[in-house]
Amino acid sequence: MPVKTPKQLVESKFGTRKDLVAKIVPLIGADDDEKRRLLGTTNAKLLRIHEVAEQVQKQFGGKAKLIDAIAKLQFAGKAPNDGWREKMDGLTVKRLFDKHRGLAN
User: Fold this and answer.
1) pLDDT, tens digit, for every residue of 9-53?
2) d(Cα 94, Cα 58) in Å, to the nearest integer?
């Protein structure tokens, strides 16, 4: 059986790219600018973003709770400084998830 291309995977699982982006936006809390950028992203990246965003949603309950989990691991009971949370809010869900995996190991 031949391997499906990212375009074929998007079409079989979600219908269209717009449908996939519509599923990603609430998972990552994207605004209109981020939504526009997602629409210009490749199918392979969109599939990966969706996969990571779903995993974060299941494991942590969202981006904010993932940031809280990173803070617990990184600061071990101490409160992070004021600018730290703002900086973390600016990172993508995938980058935050990678940071958490790095700290957990």
Assistant:
1) 999 999 999 999 999 999 888 888 889 999 999 999 999 999 999
2) 14
Q: What is the pTM of this model?
A: 0.82
DSSP string, 2-48: PPPPHHHHHHHHTSSHHHHHHHHHHHHT--HHHHHHHHTS-HHHHHH
C-alpha span between 89 and 100 (Å, rounded)? 14
Alpha-carbon gap, residue 16 to 46, rounded angstroms: 12
Co-location of 70 and 43 in the same domain = no
Q: Which amino acid is at 93?
A: V
Round to whole Å and give the CA distance between 104 and 25. 27
Q: Note the maximum CA span of the chain.
A: 53
Instruction: Report the domain count for the chain.
Output: 2
